[in-house]
Amino acid sequence: MGSKFLKEKSLSSWRLLSLQLWDKPRDPTVYGTLEIDMTRALQYLDALNSDPDSPRVTVTHLAVKAIAKAIAANPKSNALVSRRRMYLRDTIDVYCQVATEGGDDLSGVKISSADHKPIRDVATELARRASRVHDRSDAGSERTKRTLGRTPGFLLGPLLRAVEYLTYDLRLDLGRFGVAFDQFGSAMVSNVGGFGIANGLAPLVPASRVPVVLLLGEIAERPVVQYGAVVAAPCMTIGCTFDHRVLDGYHAGKLARIVRGCFEDPFKEIGIPSRSSSADDRLLLGPHDTSGKDRIDNECRDRKPGFVREEDLTT
Question: Are 156 and 149 in contact (CB under 8 A)?
């Protein structure tokens, strides 16, 4: 079976050094926050959700599109570390964490090629697949639960590390054993705002090899400065966690600017797709609303992504 990973070329001196300084993402974690004025984002969601025949789009779906767009514009951030070398994924997949069992358990859904999917398609796919997880009809999720339930506690850690090693270091497809290849993708998004949590910072999950995690907080009115005056506006804090072996502050800043832009003016940065999401994904841009009146309402392509080692890429 051919390699699913290709070596990355032209590593910077810092990148070469960082690969030797740290092991898997337990130590090189960097945290930050984004304070977002959600005025335009809420107008955007209202515009999308005004069509009763379309899927309901939420802040989570907007975050999926925002981080996917940011990674697409900065492809070297779509990376993972394997055997102290850097590899690039060839698709941008975003993993959305899903609370199950009435909040007592946690699962998730990976949206493959999220950068190419219109936001309504992201909403439809996440709703359908999350519903299967909640109804315990998702084969992969249920198989994982059964495996975890049958594995003695003292073997669980070694089993997880073995799966991680076989998948990411030996690049083996364990699909025949019910383990999806690279099942967490390029970034993770988790929304805790619905639980009344104003802000938070999520950990990197070592076995996932995901370098970026976004944690969405509660939307609430806060004082902001607009046109030189302090006014109340709906705001949200996004907690950002990234792997310093993959991203520096400079690179994280580039991602952050795009994510912020997608939230602060999604009409421009993402657009409103036509009801029938076609392959060309034509966008209808919404007009800028200056009324100042805002309302606060608190099956995908199964393609195994490959990986390319950065120093093997041609310049």
Answer: no
> Which H/E stretch holds residue 102?
none
Question: Beta 29-37 vs 272-273: how paired, if at all?
Answer: unpaired
**Tokens (6 digits) for 175:** 């699909």
3-state secondary structure of 37: strand
Q: List the alpha helices (DSSP H) in the chain.
A: 13-21, 39-49, 59-73, 119-134, 139-150, 153-164, 249-264, 266-269
One DSSP character per residue, 274-311 reads -SS--TT--EEPPPPP-S---------------EEEBB
Torsion of the alpha carbons at 197, 200, 81 and 69, rounded to the nearest 10: 70
Q: Where are the beta strands (DSSP E) in 38-111?
A: 79-82, 85-89, 94-100, 105-111
What is the third-level CATH fold of 13-309? Answer: Chloramphenicol Acetyltransferase (3.30.559)
Q: Cα separation of 184 and 164, whole Å?
A: 12
Amino acid at residue number 151: T
Query: Each residue of 227-237: b (16+ CB within 10 Å) or e?
Result: eeeeeebbbbb
Residue 313: pLDDT over 90? no
Whole-angstrom CA distances from 298 to 5, 43, 135, 194, 303 are: 42, 13, 25, 7, 35
> In angstroms, how far is the first alpha carbon of the chain from the final one?
27
Tokens of 11: 């590593």
pLDDT tens, residue by residue, 141-174: 777 777 777 888 788 888 888 999 999 999 898 8
| Residue 217 and residue 42 in contact, taking contact as beta carbons nearer than 8 Å | no
Q: What pTM value is reported for the model?
A: 0.80
Q: How far apart are CA 216 and CA 240, in angstroms?
A: 9
Q: How far is CA 255 from the centre of its chain?
A: 12
Provide the pairing of β-strand 212-216 with 187-191: parallel
